[in-house]
Amino acid sequence: MAKQYETVIGLEVHVELATKTKIFCSCSTQFGGAPNTHTCPVCTGMPGSLPVLNRQVVEYAVAVGLAANCQINQYCKFDRKNYFYPDNPQNYQISQLYLPICHDGYVEIETGPDKKKKKIGIHEIHMEEDAGKLIHDEWEDCSLVDYNRSGVPLIEIVSEPDMRSAEEVIAYLEKLRLLIQYLGASDCKLQEGSMRADVNLSVREVNANEYGTRTEMKNLNSFKAITRAIEAETKRQIERIEEGKAVVQETRRWDDNKEYSYAMRSKEDAQDYRYFPEPDLVPVQISDEWLRAIRDAQPEFRTQKQERYKKEYDIPEYDIDIITSSKHMADLFEETTALCRQPKKVSNWLMGETMRLLKEKGMDPEDIHFTPGHLAQLIQLVDERTINGTVAKEVFEQIFDRDVDPDVYVREKGLGAVTDEDTLKKVIEAVVRENPKSVEDYRGGKKKAMGYLVGQTMKELKGKGDPGIVNRILGELLNQE
């Protein structure tokens, strides 16, 4: 009988915090600046420069820890992690080893069609500074260093080895991302590197007590890449075990284009980073009052929103799940509904046209920039029959792209619905005269012919006719003996 294996996975998740300035200096953390323009003597490791801790980093770290059911170390301190790499200007990183700010927490995930619940343990969350970034120039055959990212504040969330599949890993990451986004602590954009996951993975026989030898995989910048990397590494380790070869403890780099990982360096259990207490920073002491203030400021999270939406709004559960999967989308829904008091119509626009345009343009819900007021105005224009549904979709695209004022846009473009019955009757009579075959078909029992005649009428009216009035007048004309 073939041996059965299980995968054991733990994650180290690095999250860039959404502070305006870096962790130990006042340089900007904004993404995408020209290389080495967001730098100063502190974040480039110049001799004699001294770090000063950003208070907001502590508040974000505590807020995430509370959301992840962690114990908070109200007395914690920083340590120096010494290593030598070109993108690490000081030749050390200020991190936390001995007294991290948060420890012993968990998040609950749901997987499978039956939404099976499972708690994933969090060993610790610690604060640290990010390193710079190496850019490898293949044309010039050299590497360049950009220190803009050096000193950007990070929290590292270290899980217990509690995950057993790629599905559980993605559920865990999505839960963490939502908690952090709802807190406003980070945008968690994997493609921009503001959320990065290193996967520690081993395999063992089912029911075995000991863990297998683990590898660590880096360079994973999308959920799809993480899934593919886990599946490929699981297969690779099982094949080695079946062949009687040892799995080597090492760090591996995932190449998503080739769907293959290759060894970067071996990794011993006790790699000597020569940690020692950071001499330039005093310990952090979080008072009971400060901790209480952070706890009191915690927002309504997704699960709480879902429960409230079920009670307050008459919208399907599917809509609720999609809308609350983005903090920005949930805020947009609530603010628009508060203005127009029509939750189902707001939900329809978000679930329909908004999701379609996001997919078409390859955007995330967090990238939506139109205002709730303009969507509420559009809904009102349709309700008042100032514009019809077809024109509303055209106007919405302009709202989505440029956040135009729908009242002004409809007026300037002359898109208001034609509701004058005399005008409509003249157009409809002309359409009936020009399409005797369709009229004959309709009167002969082919009711679909009515749809063709409505379409021709709307074409003549350039899509601006009121469908209700057009259908009524057309019906009256066709049913005359």
Structure keywords:
single chain; 481 residues; alpha+beta; Arc Repressor Mutant, subunit A; 3 domains; nine-stranded mixed β-sheet; three-stranded antiparallel β-sheet; 15 helices; 16 strands; elongated
Structure explained in plain terms:
This protein folds into 3 domains: about 5-290, no CATH class; about 300-415, no CATH class; about 420-480, Arc Repressor Mutant, subunit A. It starts with a strand and ends with a helix. The protein is built from 15 helices and 16 strands. It has about 475 residues and is α+β, with helices and mostly antiparallel strands. The protein has a 9-stranded mixed sheet with strand order 2-6-7-10-1-11-12-13-14. Strands 5-4-15 form a 3-stranded antiparallel sheet, with no helix packed on it. The chain has a two-stranded antiparallel sheet with strand order 3-16.
Strand order of the largest sheet: 2-6-7-10-1-11-12-13-14
Number of helices: 15
- Percent of residues in beta strands: 15-25%
Number of domains: 3
The first-to-last residue Cα distance is 82 Å
Radius of gyration over C-alpha positions, nearest whole angstrom = 30 Å
- Overall SS class: alpha+beta
Q: How many β strands by DSSP?
A: 16
Q: Shape from CA axes?
A: elongated
Largest sheet: 9 strands, mixed
Q: Low-confidence runs (pLDDT<50, min 5 residues)?
A: none
Overall average residue pLDDT: 90
Proportion in helices = 25-40%
Q: Could you state the oligomeric state of the chains shown?
A: single chain
